[in-house]
């Protein structure tokens, strides 16, 4: 669900990623600009008799945006969600999800808004629907806090 100036819009989310702005259909269109990004390294290329040697391991993801705009974070999260190994259980899922969200975590001080205030990731929250458990990690914590919703 997205509420814009034109009203409320409901979308079937084919990538399972959400962010704030711009509007969701634009995010999907923009994602298409990164269809060349892949987890495998690109093979060496030849231009005439000259062979290009890659910059090293990880070159398949060369061009993956790394800034803190919501559009770049959307693309990065979609890439990681697509190619990260599937979790085998709830604990593995929690670890995997934390790694994915850490890639778009905004440290305090690197993004200053128009009012001169730091815009940063204040916390990360994770919900295990099978076990009715909520986990959160605030900005100042390295460990997660677990809250059981069964009681």
What this model shows, in words?
Strand 1 and strand 2 form a beta hairpin. The chain has helices at residues 24-31, 70-83, 90-102; strands at residues 2-4, 7-9, 45-47, 50-52, 123-128, 133-138, 145-148. The longest helix has 14 residues, at 70-83. By secondary structure, it is α+β, with helices and mostly antiparallel strands. The mean pLDDT is 92.
The chain-level mean pLDDT equals: 92
What structural category characterises the helix and strand content? alpha+beta
Q: Tell me about the largest β-sheet.
A: 3 strands, antiparallel
Net shape: globular
What topology, given as strand order, has the largest sheet? 5-6-7
What's the β-strand tally? 7
Give the helix tally.
3
Unreliable stretches: none
Compute the CA-based radius of gyration.
19 Å
């Amino acid at each position: 669900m997205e509420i814009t100036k034109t009203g409320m819009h409901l979308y079937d989310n084919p990538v399972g990623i959400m962010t704030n702005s711009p509007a969701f259909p634009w995010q999907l269109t923009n994602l298409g600009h990164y269809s060349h990004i892949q987890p495998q390294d690109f093979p060496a290329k030849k231009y005439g008799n000259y062979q290009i040697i890659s910059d090293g391991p990880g070159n398949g993801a060369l061009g993956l945006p790394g800034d803190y705009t919501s559009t770049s974070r959307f693309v990065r999260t979609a890439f990681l969600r697509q190619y990260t190994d599937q979790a085998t259980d709830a604990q593995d899922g929690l670890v995997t999800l934390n790694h994915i969200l850490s890639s778009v975590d905004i440290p305090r001080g690197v993004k200053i808004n128009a009012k001169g205030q730091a815009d940063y990731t204040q916390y990360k929250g994770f919900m295990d629907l099978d076990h009715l458990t909520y986990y959160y990690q605030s900005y100042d914590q390295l460990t997660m806090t677990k809250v059981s919703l069964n009681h």
